[in-house]
Design brief:
Length: 204
Amino acid sequence: MSGHDHHDDHEHSELSPMDLRVRALETVLAAKGYIDPAALDVLIDTYQTKVGPRNGARVVARAWTDPAFLDWLRRDASAAIASLGYSGRQGEHMVAVENTPAQHNMVVCTLCSCYPWPVLGLPPTWYKSAPYRSRAVRDPRGVLADFGVTLPDSTTIRVWDSTAEVRYLVIPMRPPGTEGFDEEALAALVTRDSMIGTGLPKSL
């Protein structure tokens, strides 16, 4: 066995069965001329590096540091988010909901998988799953526990149902001890799940 073959075997051994199926399907479609691998790479890179949770994290960090921007988010989230350069398909009608000690917000799409792509990128697999879509409404506290989030009994959990018309961005509470942080440092603490409401920002 050549060294090259061994490298391929090692690489494949680290891929999940789903990853292997996706690669096989991509190979077949490319061989038949149905897709252009280069164009596919550009599309994937766009959602991983230009459209994704990094964008939403910057929106949250700005809201944490700029009261005027936070007020704009409350009044017209679509316009406020677009002012930072984040807009496009699946993000036309945005609503920002703020977490407070009294209320924690969580987002689900009970009908399919409506999701704010410009600020969060592609939806995670669990967001599209039937168990999450049904349990988030019936047992939000239990779902949060599954994600390792335990909130005080005094905190109300409000579940927002994302639709084709309206998509939500959760503004999590700013972690304590970050008073001297600039926007870049704050954005690094914001996780994708915290902007869906199934997680919390990273703590210090």
